[in-house]
Structure formats: structure tokens, C-alpha cells
Design goal:
Blueprint: E1 5-9, H1 17-28, E2 33-38, H2 44-52, H3 57-75, H4 82-104, H5 108-132, E3 137-140, H6 159-170, E4 178-182, E5 185-187, E6 193-195, H7 201-211, E7 216-221, E8 242-244, H8 245-253, H9 264-270, E9 274-278, E10 286-290, E11 299-314, H10 324-334, E12 339-344, E13 348-353, H11 368-375, E14 379-393, H12 402-407, E15 417-420, E16 426-432, H13 436-448
Parallel strand pairs: 1-2, 1-7, 2-4, 3-4, 7-9, 8-10
Antiparallel strand pairs: 5-6, 9-10, 11-13, 11-14, 12-13, 14-16, 15-16
Helix pairs in contact: 2-3, 2-5, 3-4, 4-5, 6-7, 7-9, 8-9
The chain binds adenosine-5'-diphosphate (ADP), aspartic acid and magnesium ion (MG).
């Protein structure tokens, strides 16, 4: 293991000049930080995604001006900004050209190329800000080493290639300079830009941590750590000081936005602790996600994932049949859909799909082509706007009384589906979208307050 710390700053931590200066203070306070991974300034990725979906000329101009405004506000506080202003202007020109193309025909590859400009711009500005503070900072294009497949919008990195290229191109720079690079983006074999899915900068930081064999990955965001649930939903949520990889990974998978779902995979592979804290208030401390935790509690946290779709498939052919489920799953796999929860009965199967997923291209995966294929096999019912509430904990499936503690207080709600027992780390409930926050508040009150 090296002494390197990889530090990642999310959108709000690079939103404006004050936030960027706070983040710079965080970086400079720890000489072990050698690589800094940045998201786009808050709001920029959403604007770019909207442009990539195709806009009329007026709306296009309005959105590009909004992006220009966000970046210029930072730029205008920098002392020697001429060179970087030219670069930002060039990026804005690219954005204009690509947005015009998107208004004629959208494509996933074009979307990724367009949205990558958010991270490209925030890193350029941050390098300049550090240089104005006499830091030897170097801008590094992560696409040179973050090689991925060509699943635009949610590309998967090739870890072996990343490790090899990082050793060749990134590692040697760390002796002399502080490297500033982009989260979220990568490139496929033909060199075209890809993205790792919304919120993917956390994943980038962990992947670089793995490639550099870092001693820790620090995720700096707008809350001082991981809480028992989203503090925006439950202001009474409590900070978790230390949490195991598995529990935190379950939280991320089931929608705790604080970490991109894949973040902990590289961290687990190399046993790299991940710290989560607030760039606005370092003294508030944070959460350490690591291998060992003392006495993990029965109930750890609640996570919420919105926009879930429930597919119920009915067929009498399922009765005593073999291979029916395999056929269904083959169809889903061929449409790139991953299934979350499943319940089965004799003649029907219910599955939940995260149809929007976290892909950068916001189109739903539940296409008419998929429904047509499934309908050839069985009767298909689709229910949308559901939410998945996951209770994360330890030994949940073995403990007594879990059912009573959980369901006892949920009497006023319609629980559409339950998944319990497959993992001793979670109990999942599917509820109507409009009830979701109420369910989380009720459960949190009963289990954590
Ligand atoms: P960043 O831009 O820094 O990546 P995100 O918005 O992606 O930040 O993630 C931070 C947000 O995650 C917090 O503001 C909070 O609302 C939300 N969040 C969801 N679940 C949790 C949780 N269990 N603990 C803390 N924050 C959470
Ligand atoms: N900027 C990207 C997003 O908004 C990636 C990230 O913030 O992690 O999804
Ligand atoms: Mg995030």
C-alpha cells in the first residue's frame, strides 16, 4: 500500500468560488492527497443532460448561458484567468456545437461527449485556482487511463487496463505535482468519451484509489458523513461514525445517493478505507467505511430509491414448468435490464426494475420492444411510480422480532411487495412513490430515534 490519498469533491464542493476555495483548503491540509477527482460544478451536468436531450434554439441558448454564468462566476475570481478563459470559451463553443447536433438527432455517444464538458471545465478552473495559491497543480485528462466498454451512459471500466495505464501515465506525475482530474468520464476503445452513470465521480475516485493502491479514498460532499438515512428526508437522522463495506455497499445499492452504487467495489477489492465528510466543515468529522467495525448493530440505516417499476408476469405455463424463469431473465438481460427484487408464486412472478437506472442518458429501459417480447410469453402488468425502501442491517434474517418492529408501524401504508431473507443485510419494501418519504420517516422514528 502507498501513502497516497485520493480525494474526490462532488458538485456542491466545486459549485462556486467559495466552495472551490474550501475544497482547496481541504486538499492542502493533507500532504498525502496526491490525486484530486472532481465532479462538474453543481447544476452543470443537469443542464448538459437537458441539452443532450435536444432543445429548441431559445432554450438551448438559455441553458448554455446558465452554464457560462456558473463557470464565469468562478473564473472571474481568478487573478490570471486569460488562458483558462480561452479554454472555457472553447469548451462552451464545443457545447454549443454538440447541442445543435443533439437537437437534430440524439444519441447516447453524443450525450456522453456533451456531458463530459462539465468535469472538464470544473477541473480546469480548480487547477487555475490552486496555481493562484502557488500550488504546483497539474490537469490530467482521466480519459487517457479510464478505459471503458462502449455502453454509453453507464460504461464499465476495464480495471486491468486502468491499472496498467495509471502506472504508466498517472503514477509518475505524482512525485512532482498535485494531479487534478475528472470523475465520471472515461473513453472506449475507439477513443470516444463515455460516462460511468450519474454520480459516477465517487466510482472514479475509488477506481483510481485501487489503481494507485491508495491508503484511503476521501469523498468530500455536502454532508459530514453517512447518516442513518438521508438527512434531507429525516432531519433527525444520525451520523454513522464507522460502517463496514458490506453495509455501506447495500446502502449505496439501495439508493443512498451519498455514494454511487459501485464505489465500494474497488475499495473492497484492495481493502481501501473510504472516508466521507463535508468539504464545508471538516471539523464536523465524517464516516469511515472500512473492513472491520466493532459490533455492527441489527438496524443500521434506511435507504430510499424512487422511480421503481413493478412488472408482474402471469402465465399458466409456469405451473410445474421448467425454464420459464430462465426465458424471462434472458429477455431482460438482452435488453440490458437488471432485476432488483423478485417474488414468485405458482403462476406469476413479480419483479422490480430500476428502469431509469443511473444512466446518464435518462431514457427509460422499459421499452415497447421489451414489453412485446415478454407479452409473447405471458400476461404482463406494469406498475410505475413505486419506491423501494430498504432497511439495511446485520443478521436481519436471523434475528427475532424484526417483522414486528418493521411492519407494526407500517399499518397505514400499502406495502406492494416485500423481499426478506435472501440477504441478512437488508429487508426491502416496495411502496407507492407518494408514500415513500412518510414510510421512511415512520420507520426511522421507530427504529433509530
Ligand atoms: P455530491 O455532489 O457531493 O456527490 P450527492 O448529492 O451526490 O453529493 O450526495 C450527497 C447527498 O446524499 C446528501 O446531500 C444527502 O441528501 C444524500 N443522502 C442520501 N442518503 C444519505 C445518507 N444515508 N447519508 C447522508 N447523505 C445521504
Ligand atoms: N457530474 C456527474 C453527475 O452529476 C457525476 C458526479 O457528480 O458524480 O452525475
Ligand atoms: Mg454524488
Amino acid at each position: 500500500m502507498s501513502n497516497i490519498v485520493v480525494a474526490k469533491f462532488g458538485g456542491t464542493s466545486v459549485a462556486d468560488s467559495a466552495a472551490m476555495n474550501n475544497s482547496a483548503n481541504v486538499v492542502l491540509s493533507n500532504p498525502e492527497v496526491k490525486v484530486v477527482v472532481l465532479s462538474a460544478s453543481a447544476g452543470v451536468t443537469n443542464l448538459l443532460v437537458a441539452l443532450a436531450e435536444g432543445c429548441n434554439p431559445d432554450l438551448r441558448t438559455e441553458k448554455i448561458e446558465q452554464i457560462r454564468h456558473i463557470q464565469y462566476q468562478i473564473l472571474n475570481t481568478l487573478p490570471d484567468s486569460e488562458v483558462v478563459r480561452e479554454e472555457i470559451d472553447r469548451m462552451l463553443e464545443n457545447i454549443t456545437t454538440l447541442s445543435e447536433a443533439a437537437s437534430l438527432a440524439t444519441s447516447a455517444a453524443l450525450t456522453d461527449e456533451l456531458v463530459s464538458h462539465g468535469e472538464l471545465m470544473s477541473t480546469l478552473l480548480f487547477v487555475e485556482l490552486l496555481r493562484s495559491r502557488n500550488v504546483n497543480a497539474e490537469w490530467f485528462d482521466v480519459r487517457n487511463i479510464m478505459k471503458t466498454n462502449d455502453r454509453f451512459g453507464k460504461a464499465e471500466p476495464d480495471v486491468q487496463t486502468l491499472c496498467a495505464l495509471s502506472e504508466q501515465h498517472l503514477q509518475p506525475r505524482l512525485a512532482n505535482a498535485l494531479v487534478i482530474t475528472q470523475g465520471f468520464i472515461g473513453s472506449e476503445s475507439r477513443g470516444r468519451t463515455t460516462t460511468l452513470g450519474r454520480g459516477g465521480s465517487d466510482y472514479t475516485a475509488a477506481l483510481l484509489g485501487e489503481a494507485l493502491n491508495a491508503k484511503r479514498v476521501d469523498i468530500w460532499t455536502d454532508v459530514p458523513g453517512i447518516y442513518t438515512t438521508d438527512p434531507r428526508v429525516v432531519p433527525n437522522a444520525k451520523r454513522i461514525d464507522e460502517i463496514g463495506f458490506e453495509e455501506a455497499a447495500e446502502m449505496a445499492t439501495f439508493g443512498a445517493k451519498i455514494l454511487h452504487p459501485a464505489t465500494l467495489i474497488p475499495a473492497v477489492r484492495r481493502d481501501i478505507p473510504v472516508f466521507v465528510g463535508s468539504s464545508k466543515d471538516v471539523s464536523a468529522g465524517g464516516t469511515l467505511v472500512c473492513n472491520k467495525t466493532s459490533q455492527p448493530p441489527l438496524f443500521r440505516a434506511l435507504a430510499l430509491r424512487r422511480k421503481q417499476t413493478l412488472l408482474t408476469l402471469h402465465s399458466l405455463n409456469m405451473l410445474h414448468a421448467r425454464g420459464f424463469l430462465a426465458e424471462i431473465f434472458n429477455i431482460l438481460a438482452s435488453h440490458n435490464i437488471s432485476v432488483d427484487l423478485i417474488t414468485t408464486s405458482e403462476v406469476s412472478i413479480a419483479l422490480t426494475l430500476d428502469t431509469a437506472g443511473s444512466s446518464t442518458c435518462g431514457t427509460s429501459l422499459l421499452t415497447s420492444a421489451l414489453l412485446t417480447e415478454l407479452s409473447a410469453l405471458c400476461r404482463v402488468e406494469v406498475e410505475e411510480n413505486l419506491a423501494l425502501v430498504a432497511l439495511i442491517g446485520n443478521e436481519l434474517a436471523k434475528a427475532r422480532g424484526v417483522g414486528k418492529e418493521v411492519f407494526g408501524v407500517l399499518e397505514p401504508f400499502n406495502i406492494r411487495m416485500i423481499s426478506y431473507g435472501a440477504s441478512s443485510h437488508n429487508l426491502c419494501l416496495l411502496v407507492p412513490g407518494e408514500d415513500a418519504e412518510h414510510v421512511v420517516k415512520t420507520l426511522h422514528h421507530n427504529l433509530f430515534e
